[in-house]
Specification:
The complex is a heterotrimer of chains A (237), B (225) and C (307). Helices cover 78% and strands 0% of the residues of chain B. Chain B is mostly helical. Helices cover 42% and strands 13% of the residues of chain C. The chains are: A mainly alpha (237), B mainly alpha (225), C alpha/beta (307). Chains in contact: A-B, A-C, B-C.
Chain lengths: 237, 225, 307
Amino acid sequence: MNLFASAIAWILDPANYVGLNAIPLRIGQHLVFSLVTLVFASAIAIPLGYLIGHTGRGRGLAVTTSGGLRAIPTLGLLTLVALWVGIGVVAPYVALTVLAIPPILAGAYTGFEAIDRRTIDAARAVGMSELQIVRKVELPLGLPLLIGGLRSATLQVIATATLAAYVADLGLGRYLFSGLKTRDYAEMLGGSILVILLALALEGIFALIQRFVVPRGVSGRPGTAPKLRTGSSAAAR
Amino acid sequence: MTWVLANLGLIWARTLDHVVLSLPPIVICFVIAVPLGWFARRYRVSRGIILTGAGLLYAVPSLPLIFVLPAVIGTSLLSPVNVIIALTLYGIALMVRVVADGLDSVDADVRQSASAMGYSTWSRFWQVELPLSGPVLLAGMRVVAVSTVSLVTVGAVIGVQSLGSLFTDGFQRGIQAEIIAGLVATVALALLFDGALVLAGRVLMPWTRRVAPPKPSVPLEVSAA
Amino acid sequence: MFTNTRGRLALVSAVAVGAVVALAGCASGDPLDEGESSAGSDTLVVGSQDYYSNEIIAEIYAQALEDGGFTVDRQFRIGQREAYLPEIESGSIDVFPEYSGSLLQALDADAATGTADEVYTALEGALPEGLTVLDRAEASDQNSWTVTQAFADTYGLTDIASLTKVTEPITVGGNSELETRPYGPTALKEKYGIEIAGFTPVEDSGGPLTVKALVDNKIQLANIYTADPNITSNDLIALDDPDNLFLPDNVVPVVSDKVDDKAAEILNAVSAALDTDTLMALNAQSVNDQAAADTIATEWLTQEGLI
């Protein structure tokens, strides 16, 4: 408990709220870095996932590729890319974008796939164009699973952004590594607690968002409701 | 390639370290998650508490957890035990939900028929519910295995030897081949574990070979740090 | 499908139990014990940091001792100082290659800098009961302020103080904690009046990223270890440090009581032959030729006639 007391003291120490290593600054870096990474990953994964989900083509390839991507340890990718590109944040961005793509991609295409075919046939029958079907039927109905995928990706990126500090001056992970080098366990533990709190806070926010994005009339449907629930929660690790 | 050929012994030694660090979490988490998942499903209150707890635990990033554990359980900071316990906790966090979902997936009619045939709660669980939720459990364990193998590498940044050490050493020495060797070996080991589980599933659940296994409604996620 | 279930369940249980048993076996295996039990009374345990250069030195110690008839148990790559220092103090490791200044600072945070001999003497006094240091090697692997040869030529740089002659803005690169260290940018300004334009954190402790940034002129002054082979292979130059801004870090074996006179003699002979150029050459074989530590050690010991 003593250790925790010193870690809390470290977190509350006013000296850690000034300068280039200030806690709010590190939290800000951590969040901005994670957000930008998620934007990159989404820009790649969402259109691709929608294409796969809407056409039903390339699913096997997507599953295999994302399965392979998931087995890749981020630390390895991070150090390898860092050796290629040198100092700066490029290596962490590349490594973490690769990490974030599979869950978002899966969220996007399973969101479309989970929709009852009859719903889409009905939309087509009432005269909707393909684009309208995507926009007015598939997008809103697929949203909960997509948000589930984003939630999962966000948590992974927030968690792994800690590791990015191994090669770059970035985010809350700095406290872990500089504490390790200077044998300052209060700093390591304090930094760890901050990352954990940040992850839990985001988990809570996403849980709330997911509650609100389920379109009216979908949540109560007996056939698909349990499927959706299992889906989003499992996808959220 | 030169580096790889000259260092096959080192790669093999690190692979063995990696297996010793990743196998215990995979096995222990299954042993613990089955009763816990069953208990979670049994009562409304326990379900809420256990599944929420598991969800929160799963949200905790691994590297910080490895730093926090010594303060909680009194191990030394660089002890490999921290890595094993942290990964076991993740495995449990994921599998508890999978077990609960898997047991849910057993048809209520089947459950009632079993009771009607005279199965006790205990024997019904072991002989009906658990085997029938097997495919779901298998899918969950495959995710646990792959993510555990991948996550073990993180321990290398604090000096716990595994294939991840090839990343940190390759980085220090600027040898790309060493890092690539580590990446390939880690992915290969993950696939090996995954393959072993699939094989075990075929042996233990021969009926799934005749009937197409239920497609998991969602891909389960793997965390990389 | 139910007829079979009982047998199948037995199989499941058997596999599960078997796995747990196997696991219990694994769990007491290698990575979990920290080397306390494996060494018999006539075995010397040699440890090393989780750092390639330190491992090479440890391997040299180990092979030299083996050649002298000792049985050696290698406990290499056991992390950084905070991890292994307690292990050495508790007597579970008998021989460990250390660096005089860094070890002194770890034992006594207020230790003052000085010449190599002063630091060595201070270290002898700071070591806990039961531990001693043998002769220090001439070789040192210490922090330095390093620039490119081209940059040094332009301004005629030789030592740290001469950096005042530089007329362009100097950006410093190194681990982020460098900024607050007593030899960091602030000290350069206060002690020597050197103007530092900026600080770029590079988090690889003077490794390949730092070197690349220096060569690409993204930074002009970097904190790199003096025995880093990248210094020669990239035409860099570590500026002289006549005032001992950095604590001298000579390679020195830290040993327990179990190291007798004969073993000490062997290790002292190794230290006598090890100078900084040698250490840099050994490191170069690891980094440039990608050779393994044991190969490098055998080659050097043979060449020096030590085995």
